[in-house]
Amino acid sequence: MNNDKLKDTKKLLEEDLKIASNEKELNDLKVKYLGKKGLITELNSSIKNIPNEEKKSYGLAVNGLRTLFNNIYEEKLEIFKKEELNKKISNETIDITLPSKKIKKGSLHPMTLITEEFEDLFVSMGYTVYEGPEIETDENCFQKLNVPKGHPARDAQDTFYLKDEFENFLLRTQTSTAQVHAMEENTTKGPLRIVCPGKVYRRDEDATHSHQFMQIEGLVIDEDVSMADLKGTLEMFCKKILGEKTEIRFRPSYFPFTEPSVEVDVSCFKCQGKGCNLCKQTGWIEVLGAGMVHPNVLKMCGYDPKKYQGFAFGTGIDRFAMFKYGIPDIRTIYGNDIRFIEQFNRKDDTYEVK
Questions:
Q1: In this structure, are 172 and 315 located in the same domain?
Q2: Which has the closest alpha carbon to 69: 37, 26, 36?
Q3: Are residues 43 and 118 in the same domain?
Q4: 176 with 145: CB under 8 angstroms?
Q5: Within 13 Å of residue 205, how many CA atoms lie on the same side as its CB?
Q6: pLDDT in tens, 58-111
Q7: Does residue 327 sit within a domain?
Q8: Are residues 187 and 332 in the same domain?
Q9: How many domains does the chain have?
Q10: Which of 177, 182, 253, 176 minimizes the C-alpha distance to 217?
Q11: By residue range, what is the domain housing residue 84?
């Protein structure tokens, strides 16, 4: 009787495995035969009821059934997995004759582009990029730059003061404050060559002025520094940024922290100096302020003005971005309009903003 049951189970097992057509059906059969209440499991459990002299042969027969099932199961499982993989590969085949989808690329902001261009140029000239804090003290923002309290030069740099602390802290009006930090941190009081890019703040708001804008300022201090060094540096800077045909000129001016001071004009890159609406028919455009560092500034920052001289210069990065990319209104730069930003990329071309 036990042999009949073994034979019937083997026959049923082979028939079931033969007609199994997918991995799910195969796994269902595994439960049917080898699960807790499976047919082979029940045969194995009934060994206790078999006479002692037949137990060995019965046990071997049951194990043979289990081995048979597992062998057929593994063979069919491998077949099903290969079929599934081939089906997946077939369905996911790429038709290379189809037109490609346009990949949307990101763009750097024009202010980032031109700031990196400025930094790369000055670093190649031996300068170090130095960034100072945007929240400053009145002493660093004005007094140590030779602008004492009550000085009329402060009127042109009306800024934002922190509530309840307006006598001490404010948002810096120029990146010259970073130069103060750099000079004070230079404990050896030796030569210094830095450029300081960053945000500055003033209470302005029109097509060419913003309450927040970007500046970059440069400072060189050494024992033998002259106005000729300043002019050579700015001439190279303007030619690299605006074109090799660019000419520069100095006009006498006044800044509290430099003496002598100059305004720096460049020949109009739109009309090549012939006169147009951009240069207001003059052929020149004002782009920079510069001069030799005032002895009082050197002294207040720990330098001996009898031993060291220096020059400083500064410009609005926004202004150069407007020139380079043809941006008519500075407020567009800070408008957060993605259509505006998408017009820029890594190329060095001149852009005409639509």
A1: yes
A2: 26
A3: no
A4: yes
A5: 4
A6: 788 888 888 888 888 888 888 888 888 888 877 777 777 778 777 777 778 888
A7: yes
A8: yes
A9: 2
A10: 176
A11: 2-91
